[in-house]
Amino acid sequence: MKTSIAFALAFTALALLAVAPLILPEYWTGVLLGMTGYVTLATAWALFSGPTRYVSLATVAFFGVGAYTVAVLNEVLPYPLVLLCAAGIGMIMALVVGLSTLRLAGVYFVIFTFGLAELVRQTVSWWEVNVTYTMGRYVFLPFEGHHIYWQLLALAAITFLIAWAIGRSRIGLALKALGDDETVAAHAGIDVTRIKLFLFVVSSTIITLVGAIQAPRWTYIEPSIVFNPTVSFMTLIMALLGGAMRLWGPLVGAVPLFLLFEWLSGRFPDHFSIILGALFILIVFVMPNGVLAKIDDLRKGRQS
């Protein structure tokens, strides 16, 4: 019964969000577009990093690859095929990276993923300068802001459905054991490496598609735009604020933080990075498990 009510409420909210661009001014459509993008990124990030507790800073590597795939192929392939190519490239890249590195843990994995994002950015920059003799790409597709927003909204809905389905599956049960103690989970017969690889590939493919869908928004892209490390840090902070272990946690964290970041970047553009770092430290110290977990703890405290 509760599941049916939750689905009904979610469907109603999705329908309202879908018609919002037909009512709202163009500026607020742009805000919704950016917000939906980060909700999807944070939810996809939490698919892997939430249950495994592997903190990934490779978000922008996959995001940028998706955007650049659209920039390179948009003039030679139909748009749906371009998105399929972007998803395929993201999937293959995630498989290679996952098979190579998912045996790492802790700070080593964090350092590797941060280095991966920089490696991909530098590789793309080198290719553009030395092979194609350019430093950017134009993306001419017949999409306005609301078209991009609707695509992101559909991807966000699919991402939530995937997260919900995984949580209710046998993989979800295995993830609970894996998150508590990976060694114990392995001794219990759980194929830890395969589960981590599966989640990493699903998460990275979705992140790649977010970058691909948003590429037409910029018209002109270059490595400094689509491989901006701020994307990785903002995604991480949003997921942690809401609670990466909860289905709705990334949404709860992404919406207020995106609005706050929009205001801060407009009012304090020179100090935005400092404020971003301070917020990250505050969240880690005050609410390490997220807002939703904090609310649950307060409820339990009142009941006792």
Explained architecture:
The protein is mainly α. The protein has one domain (2-303). It is 80% helix and 1% strand. It is built from 14 helices and two strands. It has helices at residues 2-23, 26-52, 59-73, 79-101, 107-130, 145-167, 170-180, 182-187, 192-218, 223-226, 230-242, 249-267, 272-286, 291-303; strands spanning 137-138, 220-221. The chain has a two-stranded antiparallel sheet with strand order 1-2. Helix 3 packs parallel to helix 5 (107-130), helix 3 crosses helix 9 and helix 11 crosses helix 12 (249-267). The longest helix is centred in the first third of the chain and has 27 residues, at 26-52. The chain starts with a helix and ends with a helix.
Number of strands: 2
Beginning-to-end CA distance, first to last residue: 28 Å
- Note poorly predicted spans: none
SS element count, helices: 14
Q: Tell me, what's the shape?
A: globular
Q: Major beta sheet, specifics?
A: 2 strands, antiparallel
Mean pLDDT: 86
Report the helical percentage.
over 70%
- How many separate domains make up the residues? 1
* SSE pattern: HHHHHEHHHHEHHHHH
Radius of gyration: 19 Å
The fraction of residues assigned to DSSP E strands is under 5%
